[in-house]
Structure formats: C-alpha cells, structure tokens
C-alpha cells in the first residue's frame, strides 16, 4: 500500500496551497498529481508519488553519491576476485 | 525507470551481499517493518542468499492486514445503505471482515468504487451531489497526507456529501509494541522508507536509544534493502545502536514538513486496535473535532460492533506480530491462497503470506537468486 513511484515534473498547472497540481511523467506516461506536499519542487525535478500526491522530492545529488560509492565498492570486490 | 532501475543492478547487489557476509560473525535477527520490503526481499532472493547470516522477521507493515474486522464490517454496512457510494483503494476489496469482504458486498448490490487517490473520491463527490461519497481511509503515514488533503479540499469546495471512514495507523507505536513484547527477538529494524518520507528520521532516536536497537531507514529495491541490512549488521557487530538513513534520496531527517502540517491540521493521534497485535497506544489517527462533519463515524450512526470471531484456522495474528513465518501456518497454501484467503496477509499486495505464496522458492533455500527485478 505504501508503494510510491518516481516521476518527473513536466509542468505545474496550479500553485494553490490546497489544490496545487502538476503534470508528472512516469516512464513515458503522464498523469496529473497533487503537489500540496512539495510546493517548492520545480519543473524538471523528480518527485515520489503515492495515491495521487507527491510525497517527497528526490535528491538527485544524494542518489548519484550512493551509486558512485557502490561502484567503487564493486570495483574493489572485482579486483579482489582476480 | 529512473531512480528505480539503478537500484536493481545485480552487480551492486552482489558486492553488498559479499560485504554483509564478510561483516557478520553471527546470524543477526532483523525486522523489515514494511510489507513492500518483505515482497522485495523475497522476490529478489535476498532472504535466501543471506540464510545463516541474517534472519529477517517480517513486520506488521501492511495497513490492509492490520485494519480491524469491525472497521471493514462498518464499511460494508455503509456500502449497502441507499444513497451511499463507498470508495477505497483496490487493496481493501478482498480483505475479509468478520463475515465477508467488500467484493462480495459489491456482488450483492453494495455501491463500492475503487479509486487511485482519495482526491479522486472528492471529485466523485463534487460530480455526484445526490450521493454521499465515503472514502475508507486505510494506510500508514505515507497515505495519511493524501486523505488529510481530501478533507481540506472538500471543506474548501463546501461539499456536504463527502466523508472519511478513518482507519489510519501509525508505524512507530507498533514498532515499540513489538519491542515491548516478552518474546521479541528483533535486534535491529529496517524502518519503512516511504513512511519516513513523511515522518522523517530523527523521531526514531528516542526509540533506538531506549531499547538499544539500530533503526535504519531503508528503501524497497534490492540495492536499497541490502544497504539497510549492511548498515544494521555493521552497527550490531560494533555494538552500537543508532538511527541512520540509507534512503537519503527520498528521506530528509526532519521528514516532509508540508505533509506533517497538513496531517496535524486534520488528524489527532488516538489508541487503535491493530488486527493481530491488539490495541496500540497512540497507534492510530482520528479526525480532529473541528472536522467532525467529514467523519463518516459521526455522519452515519455506527452499529454496535458484533463480537469478533477470527477464523481458527488462520494464524495471521502470529504472522503480523512476527511470531511465525507464513509457511508455519497449517492453512498456508492449502486452505488459504490469494484466490481464497482466510486472512488479510494472504490478500494484500503487501501481506507476508501473499509474499511467500508468490515468491518463496518451492525447493531448496537457494532456488532464487538476485535477479534484475524488484517490486
């Protein structure tokens, strides 16, 4: 039930604090999502959407850092395996 | 899909599995709180890969599974009243109440409509002024901001035909109830990542310190799950117990203040019975008195709950409390299947019984391996 899907904000439709909505793209499919919980997210940013509302903005820098750290770990493991 | 596929990389998952095996000097017992994590762990084969290194006990993190039968009975009763349209998430449809499910109620004429979002239910109320639209609000902190927002929208639209039947539950009090149990074997928690997008990380610090357990905020894809396990195991091996966040791309330390503001505007905390776990202090949410006109319990008189008789052949209470794993139940996979469930954990997409039925290997502990899949 807590399933949430990452999507990219294509364009804001309404900035109202209660009725704020934006068009969000998920792997090529566009849906209108409610944005009251992420009022500061900008077009081009990624958000996590659950039950029709964006619940958090995805931190692109942090996402990249984790993957880079893991890539280094993976390289070390592969060197040891040789 | 960006921010999903990268975290399903089998090479990164194998490195992390290697790290965890190198770190662990004994078999540690961890609980993944969320049912979505249970499915991810089984589907990717992580549980089998880490046999003897980490034992994962499956937590109560399936809101559908812990919703008391009397709440489901009341929803069914409302769906059968003339002029009422009962709306809810698809997960709720087949969950058994004390006698039947919403699916069978709908088959005999009950007005039940599935919606993707509670805000779609507000729109239905706006379009159908002659009908009383009730949204059966189930879910953890992840879902509560959406239902709270539905109340704010309905109020602003001046709708007098929209209400919520609130059955929201809160995760942290349930984790504490598990730790207080005399038979608790949990040595560390993988906290539910999407709940934490709302409630944050720091709120767990007191719990971690009081019970001396590591609590690691963890995501749902194989690499996310392994990062959480690795952090927990490293803490246990070094004798430390703190709160950490292995889902930082989605979770801020303080959570989402906008969402929490909307929630606290609409809801107050209250004691709440959890199916399988009993009444949990502050374990649920209720509408604040000022929003009473949107409370289905107030708008429609609730009948006195009938004495609840849980099915004797179903051990879902033991499964939800982490006392047994689903295959230990005699009905598992025989009298109880997703097509013909005896208990809620076999129905829901997040239930532990359904996860074992779908994903557990049928023969041998290593029949499933890390694959390029996820939830």
Describe this structure in a few short sentences.
The complex is a heterodimer of chains A (82) and B (375). Chain A is built from 1 helix and 5 strands.
How would you portray this structure in words?
The complex is a heterodimer of chains A (82) and B (375). Chain A is of the alpha+beta class. Chain A has one domain: Roll (SH3 type barrels). Chain A contains one helix and five strands, in the order βββββα. A five-stranded antiparallel sheet of chain A has the order 3-2-1-4-5, with no helix packed on it. In chain A, a hairpin with a 6-residue loop joins strand 1 and strand 2 (21-26). The termini of chain A are far apart. The mean pLDDT of chain A is 92. Chain B has 375 residues and is α/β, with parallel strands linked by helices. Chain B has two domains: 1-62 and 171-252 and 318-368, HypD, alpha/beta domain 1 (Rossmann fold); 69-168 and 256-299, 3-Layer(aba) Sandwich (Rossmann fold), CATH 3.40.50.11740. Helices cover 37% and strands 18% of the residues of chain B. Chain B has 16 helices and eleven strands. Chain B has a five-stranded parallel sheet. Chain B has a four-stranded parallel sheet with strand order 4-3-5-6, with helices on both faces. In chain B, strands 10-11 form a two-stranded antiparallel sheet. In chain B, helix 2 packs parallel to helix 16, helix 7 (118-127) packs parallel to helix 8 (144-157) and helix 8 packs across helix 13. The longest helix of chain B has 16 residues, at 222-237. The two termini of chain B are 12 Å apart. Classes of the chains: A alpha+beta (82), B alpha/beta (375).
